[in-house]
Structures are given as structure tokens and as C-alpha cells.
Amino acid sequence: MQNETLSRNDAQALDKSDEIAHLIEMFEIPSGIIYLDGNSLGPLPISAKKAARDVVEKQWGEDLITSWNKHAWIDLPTIVGTKIAKLIGAKEGQVICCDSISVNLFKLLASALSLNSSKRNIVLSQQDNFPTDLYMVEGLQQFLGEQRCQLLSCDAQDIEAQLEARGHEISVLMLTHVNFRSGFIHDMQTLTKLAHEKGVLVLWDLAHSAGAVPLELDECEVDFAVGCGYKYLNGGPGAPAFVYAAEKHIPHISQPLTGWMGHANPFTFDPNYKADPGIKKFLSGTPSVISMSVLNAALDIFENVNMQQIREKSVAMTNFFQRLMAQSSSLKELKLASPETPVNRGSQLAYTHPQAYALCQALIAQGVIADFRAPDVLRFGFSPSFLSFELLFDSVEKLKVIMQTEQYKLPEFNQKQAVT
Ligand SMILES: *Cc1c(COP(=O)(O)O)cnc(C)c1O
Fold first, then answer.
1. Where in the chain is the domain with CATH 3.90.1150.10?
2. Which of 60, 184, 261, 303 has fewest C-beta within 10 Å?
3. 235 C-alpha vs ligand 1 centroid, how far in Å?
């Protein structure tokens, strides 16, 4: 079947045998929209909508401050962290929900730098990492001075060579597991092991992994990780992020954002800081209760599926979409910028085209929401929980029409907006 032309019938057949097709009923997706951007902002789960209402109208509106106890607001970071732990292969007590990825990177990088030998000052990362990851290291470098922190970023294919050559100077290897542009997946187990052999601690950014690909953080002996609440976990715009710290490190870590929520006993109002002995030491200030309640409810989506089922469908979807794109002569100007083989990429596909921005806008006007990533990438995200193969078929049909009619050349599709 790999070389035959795919048709709508093939899409329908794949949908029939889809074991997790029922999950779509848990979402509220506007009719007429094909949403290929769940990797940037997950759509609205019905449970999340109900939770938003409840937390605002009932918990805040009626129960007021008593809700900290009555509705366990105070435990939300732990409750949500425990749910996320199950999705990323982490035993309990190692994951907590808080702040944003950026802020959590600061906490973890600072912790890792001071945990590892003081003679090591390098944070090794990848040049095409998501910029905030690199910026946070730059900020720490300025703050701590180069003797304590120095960013070294290289191309993806040079990571192992850098570990070989400069392993003794490197404190932390900080990588994004699934590249945000291309979807390339790093081999977490191999790189973590290689880093450890050189005495290097490893920090993984799971922004495009959590909820999309199976992860085994404990089994891979990962030291630290961060991840996102609003992408594949569907927690809503600006949903809080999460921190993972391996159990063995937690007693030895002192993170620098020592706010009262990370204190062992916040409500003793002790003038001296004493860190919580567990993962709660990564908390700083008051949790964002409304957002975290919404994320908590959104995680219901993952309750009765396993990550292998999600991954199987994801691989089938990127494969199907890739073949549809390749079989159409009108789409040959779009070049695949993701790994060719589905197992080497996450749940997304990137195509380059000089007019990628305008193509994206023209697609949105046709009800197909994808996104553009500078300079020339048209990015399609395939969240397995709410997409069907037939919708993928429809979206490629629409893209074909846009290319054939050159609609994307219209001026209205060439106006740059603030958020792309
Ligand atoms: C989306 C994303 C972020 C976002 O960071 P925030 O601080 O939550 O805004 C960080 N890193 C990667 C790799 C991402 O894809």
C-alpha cells in the first residue's frame, strides 16, 4: 500500500480501525475547523470548560477563600503533577505543576549548575533549540558570571562530539526532546547515558513531547525535565508548566526562587526559609488556581488511553499526511523539513516554502489552522486525541486548491500579525 495513491476511502478505513477515535467527543472543536495546531495551543476539552465555570462561579464566587481547603486549591500543584507524572514515566513525588517553562528552566538550570562540580560551567545546548531555552541560559550567564555558567550551543549532529571533547567542562546538557520546528526526536536514553558517562547532568524540555510521545524519564535516568501545559496537554492558553526532578537529586537541590510556597511549612510564616524536603521545593509563589484547575480537568483526556495508543495513531497520521502531500504534483514546491521516517519525529510535520506565511493565512481562511514558524516553515501538528484521517485528507485537498489557484498571493494573506 505504501506506493499506491491514497484516497478518501483509505482515510475512512483508517478512521474505522482507530482505537482512540472516541476521544474526539471529549473536546469542543468549532464546526468547520480542522485544527492542526494542537501542538501550539491544545483545543478546549469539555471537562476543562466545566472546570473553568466551576472554579470561577462556585469555588471562587461562592466559597471564596475557604476553597483553599474546601476545594484543595493548595494541593493543585501536586495533584496535577501526579497526573502528568503518569504520562512521562515518572514515579510519584518527582513532578510538580508550576510557573512557565522559562521560569522552571531558570530554577532547574541554577539547581543543576550548583549540584554539579563547581569546576564545570558549561551548559551545552542546541543552536536551533526553542529560543527561550537558550535565553534563560544567557540570563543566568550574565547573572552568575561566565565562571559559573556559560552557554555552548552547537548543531544537533555535533552534540555527541562536544560531549566527547569537552565533557569534563560541561555541567548540564539541556535539550528539547522533540524539536519545535522540525519535530526531530532525540534519543533520550542514549544521550542521557552518554552525558552521565562524562559526569554531565541532563535537562530535557518536553514541550512537544508530553502528551504526544511515550516517555520513560525514570527508566532513562533523566536528571531534570520541564514541560508545557498548554500544548498537547490541552490545559488552555498560558496554562502552567511542570518540573520533573529525579528523586535522588531532590534532597540535594536548593533552587534559587525560594518563595513561600516552596517552604516546608508555608503557614508558619517563619522569617527564615526552610525548603520543603520534596518536589514542592520547586514552588515559588501562589499557584495560578484558575489555570491549574482547568489543566487538571483537561488531563481527563488521558485517563483511559495509554501513550502507546496515542503514539501509534500519531505515527500513522504523520505518515498518512506525508504521503498525501508527496502524491500531489501541485504541492511539490513544499519541501519536507522533518525527518523522513515517522519514528524519528514527534507528532508534527514541517514544510518549507518561500511563501509559508501567506500559505498558512490562506489555509486558516479555509478553516484549516496550522502555523508558521520563521523564516519559512509551515508547521502542521497532529494531536491524536481529536483528529481523524479524513480531516487530514480534507486539509490536504484544501491546500492543493490554494496552491493551484495561487490564492495565497492575495494581499490579505500577506499582512504579518503579532503572533504567528
Ligand atoms: C512552547 C515552548 C516553550 C514555551 O515556554 P514558556 O515559558 O511556557 O512560554 C519553551 N520551550 C519549548 C521547546 C517550547 O516548545
1. 8-31+306-413
2. 303
3. 14
Tell me yes or no: is domain 8-31+306-413 CATH 3.90.1150.10: yes
- Fold classified for 51-302: Aspartate Aminotransferase; domain 2 (3.40.640)
Q: How far apart are CA 223 and CA 44, in angstroms?
A: 32
What pLDDT is stored for residue 2 in this prediction? 57
The pLDDT, as a whole number, for residue 87 is: 98
Residue 95 has pLDDT above 90, yes or no: yes
Instruction: For CATH 3.40.640.10, list the domain ranges present in the chain.
Output: 51-302
In one letter, which amino acid is 101?
I
pLDDT at 117 over 80: no
Coil, strand or helix at 349 = strand
Name every residue whose Cβ is closer than 8 Å to that of residue 218 and which is 6 or more positions away in sequence: 89, 90, 91, 94, 246
**Any residues with Cβ below 6 Å from ligand 1, and which?**
100-102, 130, 132-133, 176, 180, 205, 207-208, 228, 241
Pick 310 or 420 by higher pLDDT.
310
CA of 130 to the centre of ligand 1 (A): 7
> What is the best residue among 101, 129, 134, 205 to mutate for testing ligand 1's pocket, by most ligand atoms within 8 Å of CB?
101
pLDDT tens readout for residues 244-277: 999 999 999 999 999 999 999 999 999 999 999 9
